Amino acid sequence: DSHGKKKTFQGLQSSWVDNLKALKLEDAKSIVGSGDKLNKNKLEEIALIFLASVLVRNHDVVGMFFDNLMYTPDNSFVHVDAGGSFHYRAQGDIKSGNRTDDEDHPYPRNPEEVHSMLFSGKGASKLFLPLLQLHPEVLLSASKVFEKKLSDEKIKEVVLNTWKENSDNPEDISINDEPIDDFIDRIISRRNIILEKIPEIVTKLRH
């Protein structure tokens, strides 16, 4: 600045991918297939996107116009929006809330999104529900991958890497005044409850 002081800013950099198309429901159904032609691997990818979105409360995962999830010519799924980042909302605002009231916390320990993102009839549920109803059991296999990839250690690593620029000493990092260890424990709690609820969700999807 004019006083010779260095200013620092947090930012997010993404890779540019050419030839993307917005993943509309009809496109997703075509890629996933159905019946004897069901591609369980692609459906499991959708299930993992759902689980990850629930974990970080990314209500905007599909976008207002189904334009936040896209796919490549070889039918690979691609996220193009950072609304699921820990610290920021889709429009760039810092996620805020009452740190002493769990229900008003940006990340409540009990992730109600595991229901709302499937059964609310709006937003992400318009994509996830009709796809996961094709073969509800895919959530069981996806949850095992989800659990393996997001161990306690991995969650801690991801969170610390996200905020490590804030301090050379991890124990000094806080997220909107919440100690980093409390925040990590909160995300682990969300993961555990998501996993506990999967059998219930599978049963509900079958009916």
Mean of residue pLDDT?
84
What class do helices, strands and sheet pairing give? mainly alpha
- Beta content comes to 5-15%
What sort of overall outline do the alpha carbons produce when their principal axes are compared?
Answer: globular
- Order of strands, main sheet, comes to 1-2-3
Distance between the ends = 62 Å
**If helices are DSSP runs of H or I spanning 4 or more residues, what is the number of helices?**
7
What is the share of helical residues? 40-55%
Low-confidence stretches: none
Rg, Cα atoms, Å? 18 Å
Quick tags:
207 residues; mainly alpha; three-stranded antiparallel β-sheet; 7 helices
Write a structural description:
The chain is mainly alpha-helical and 207 residues long. It contains seven helices and five strands; from the N terminus they run E-H-H-E-E-H-H-H-H-E-E-H. It has helices spanning 25-32, 40-55, 113-119, 125-132, 138-149, 152-163, 180-206; strands at 21-22, 69-71, 77-79, 174-175, 178-179. A three-stranded antiparallel beta sheet has the order 1-2-3, with no helix packed on it. A hairpin with a 2-residue loop joins strand 4 and strand 5 (178-179). The N and C termini lie far apart (62 Å). The model has no long low-confidence stretch (mean pLDDT 84).
List strands and helices in order, with pairings.
Elements lengths: L20 E2 L2 H8 L7 H16 L13 E3 L5 E3 L33 H7 L5 H8 L5 H12 L2 H12 L10 E2 L2 E2 H27 L1
Antiparallel strand pairs: 1-2, 2-3, 4-5
